[in-house]
Amino acid sequence: MAMARKLKLNIMDDWIEVGVYAKRKDESDEDLDVPIYLEKHYFESKQDTLNIVVDEKPDSAGIDPRHLFIDREPDDNRKTLVEID
Question: Where are the beta strands (DSSP E) in 26-63?
């Protein structure tokens, strides 16, 4: 009888897409999330850090924002950004 169990690993060792999004209005004045940065980055562990500079004010950012990887919790891939003084 086979048994399955979850393992929490801090090793990723993969190229993962990182996205930064801005809010823009369309013709009917609806808010759209527009990618202002979308690039793959190599991650070796969950503790890796990125510093990304963009030319306009970002609204949200995420790891694998377009859900290219199979994910048990896809709703946590993107977060709304907040300003810090």
Answer: 31-45, 60-63
Domain of 17 in residue numbering reads as: 11-71
pTM for this model (two decimals) = 0.77
pLDDT number for residue 25: 87
Q: Which residues contact 6 (CB under 8 A, 6 or more apart)?
A: none
Structure tokens at 57: 């004010």
- Taking only the tens place, the pLDDT of each residue in 46-85 is 778 889 999 999 999 999 999 998 888 888 889 999 888 7
Sheet containing 11-25: order of strands: 31-45, 11-25, 60-63, 78-80
Q: Residue 1 domain-assigned?
A: no
> Which residue reads 């393992």 in tokens?
7
Residue listed under structure tokens 């199979």:
70
- Residue 30 in any domain: the answer is yes
Distance between CA atoms of residues 27 and 30, nearest Å = 7
